Amino acid sequence: MMEKTDDPAGAARGVTFVPAVPAAPPVTEGRTRPSGVQSWPSGVRPWWVGAVLTAAVGAAAVLGPAGTRWLEHPAVEAWRTVCLAITVQALPFLLLGTALSGAINAFVPAGLFTRVLPKRPALAVPVAGAAGAVLPGCECASVPVASSLIRRGVPPAAAFAFLLSAPAVNPVVLTATAVAFPGNPAMVAARLLASLGTAAVMGWLWLWLGKEEWLRPLLRHRHTGHRPGHSRRTEFLLGFRHDFLHAGGFLVLGAMAAATFNVTVPGAVLDTFSGSPWLSVLFLAGLAVLLAVCSEADAFVAASLTGFSPTARLAFLVVGPMVDLKLIALQAGTFGRAFAWRFCTATTVVAVAASVLIGGALW
């Protein structure tokens, strides 16, 4: 039987017609899609898929069927509770950050930030660090916003200063610190000064030693975002969906790691380190990294650690919003692993040093 074709002449001759038209739509789509959005799916698809899978696995582990026998073990139930608490605690702020990131990408003119910030990057760093006070969220919100700022032409050093300061110096966090330490305004002032100092130093260190090849290729392209003739609403939705799904999986991964530490490390370990001034600072700094407590709640955790010195508890408050397991995972997924391990290690050292200096001057 003769094969049915769309070409009458070809059918009459018994020749199968193979149209060449289907190759055209991908080319047309590539020309019409906004250039600021076009590179997202192709540039991050492996990470995007991995983030979604991680989130799915984490959600299944936390919200799995209670009837399964091994899930009813007390340690596993405690792990699920802590993991779920960290995820739920951070999720609203991650939504806030990704919404702000999408709005910046779609609605804010590309040259706005470069006009507002000082032209000299060395001066733009402390200005961006001080501007972190305007974002009332935790560290999960600052990562996608900083990524969007870099794509809009903001120098990476200034964006990283904003990333570090925003979770630690905004009014909500400082108010929570004042409530957690009543009658102790020195702790609020120390947290503000040490956090701003750490953010500025890290921005300047990036200007001095940072290399853009450590960043993911997408972040090396400047002034992306809205293009004339394209729907801002569509660009906002695409940016929001990409950033949220991309970062959400890494948030769950970090929460799972923090929950594992909470369950496996016995409380008696805290008493071992509280007696030494230097070891207590290092221990609480490391504890802040592992616990991954939201910056708007970490002051209450620090206040409960009454066996430790004020300087050690200050280190907990300064390091936590800047470096923790979920942040490391988020930064690795957003900026790249080559960046994350260098930046997080240096930030931890600088934050501990700033805490010791400020704490030593006040107490």
State the gist of this model.
By secondary structure, this protein is mainly α.
List the helices and strands and how they pair.
Layout: H1 8-13, H2 24-32, H3 35-62, H4 74-107, H5 112-116, H6 121-131, H7 139-151, H8 156-169, H9 171-180, H10 185-209, H11 232-264, H12 268-273, H13 277-291, H14 298-304, H15 310-319, H16 325-335, H17 337-362
Helix pairs in contact: 3-4, 3-11, 4-7, 4-11, 6-8, 6-10, 7-8, 7-16, 8-10, 9-10, 9-14, 10-15, 10-17, 11-16, 13-15, 14-15, 15-17, 16-17
Question: Number of helix segments?
Answer: 17
Major β-sheet, in short? Answer: none
- Strand tally is 0
Rg for CA atoms: 24 Å
Mean pLDDT: 76
Low-confidence stretches: 1-48
Q: Order of SSEs, N→C?
A: HHHHHHHHHHHHHHHHH
What can you tell me about this protein's structure?
With about 375 residues, the protein is an all-alpha fold. Helix content is about 70%, strand content about 0%. It contains 17 helices and no strands. It has helices at about 10-15, 25-30, 35-60, 75-105, 110-115, 120-130, 140-150, 155-170, 170-180, 185-210, 230-265, 270-275, 275-290, 300-305, 310-320, 325-335, 335-360. Helix 4 runs antiparallel to helix 11, helix 6 packs parallel to helix 8 and helix 10 packs across helix 17 (about 335-360). The longest helix is centred in the first third of the chain and has 34 residues, at about 75-105. It is globular. The termini are far apart. The model is unreliable at about 1-50 (pLDDT under 50).
Q: Which structural traits does this protein have?
A:
disordered N terminus
